[in-house]
Amino acid sequence: MEQVEELTAKEQIKLHQEKIKEVINETGKVVVGQQYMINRLLIGLFTNGHVLLEGVPGLAKTLTIKTLAKVLDLDFHRIQFTPDLLPADIIGTMIYNQQRSEFEVKKGPIFANLILADEINRSPAKVQSALLEAMQERQVTIGDATYDLDKPFLVLATQNPIEQEGTYPLPEAQVDRFMMKVYPSYLDKDSELEVMRRMSNMNNRYQVKVILSKEDIFAIRNEINNVTITESLERYIIELIFATRKPQEYGLQEESKYIQYGASTRATISLNLAAKAIAYFNERDYVLPEDIKEVIHDILGHRIILNYEAEAEGITTRYIIDKILSKVNIAKV
């Protein structure tokens, strides 16, 4: 009897893994050449982690998120962040009902499954603090009452790296709440040609179909949670994180003068979960060192704070992470 149940569980996992491939293919019918971004958004969804996208305009960031919401049959709201945005515009407010002679709650757009926070750095601190509660606690406070947000709940935020006038740098505490920071890139020539051909035919608009349900998403989360990671790999993750905090102890004397603050404990948790998700996507029930290395730039890139000296000398977090990877050897863990 136990053998039959185990076989059924394996078949269920295989079915979900095939459906994830279908999600990527179905999204690719609308979004061309952004498989890396789609993959990272799915990792965030299946590990309950928010994602920050930073890239120049026109890289299909909004289109990708909107299409994914349709393929996953999730409620989707887009919030355009502007300098005059108020917390009530996001979470909602109390309004007076004249017929009942009482105040009632009017919920804001934050009450959805996927939230696209477009140009998130264009709104001031009060708005960011309201969003911070939603991101961390999965709840919002309106008046004297607290309301739980729908599940799954995911904030996918975008930033424009070009225009800095009229923007507000995100607080480090909020940036740390994002599991990953992803940098979508320009398309290659063939993908750009495909986009041009598609958009030149105004009548050719593909309607995507639903692939996964909410129940599937929660089931996949449990399956990813059950992916095995050995103690040696867990300690490897710890060593990688501690190398960002105490680089001199890892033979990174030159790099230590550029690091102002290392990665937080959230980075440790996120790196573990993301590595499990990569293994699951690759149809394995165990994590390899390559899984950790594949996502480490997305997890640590926005959490390692460099000083002005690093900026002056053109040192990037990617360079620092590569140096850490070269010094921290899993064989020595």
Describe the structure.
With 333 residues, this protein is an alpha/beta fold. The protein contains 14 helices and 11 strands. The chain has 2 domains: 170 residues, P-loop containing nucleotide triphosphate hydrolases (Rossmann fold, 3-Layer(aba) Sandwich); 102 residues, Magnesium chelatase subunit I, C-Terminal domain (Helicase, Ruva Protein, domain 3). The protein has a 5-stranded parallel beta sheet. Strands 3-4 form a two-stranded antiparallel sheet. It is globular, with a radius of gyration of 21 Å. It starts with a helix and ends in a 6-residue tail after the last helix. The N terminus is likely disordered.
What features would you highlight for this structure?
333 residues; alpha/beta; Rossmann fold; Helicase, Ruva Protein, domain 3; five-stranded parallel sheet; two-stranded antiparallel ribbon; 14 helices; globular
The amount of beta strand, in percent, is 15-25%
How far apart are the first and last residues' alpha carbons, in Å?
A: 40 Å
Oligomeric state of the chains in view: single chain
The CATH superfamily title of the largest domain = P-loop containing nucleotide triphosphate hydrolases
| Overall body shape | globular
Number of helices, where a helix is a run of at least 4 consecutive DSSP H or I residues:
14
Q: Over the alpha carbons, how many angstroms does the gyration radius reach? A: 21 Å
Tell me the number of structural domains. Answer: 2
Reported for the largest beta sheet, the result is: 5 strands, parallel
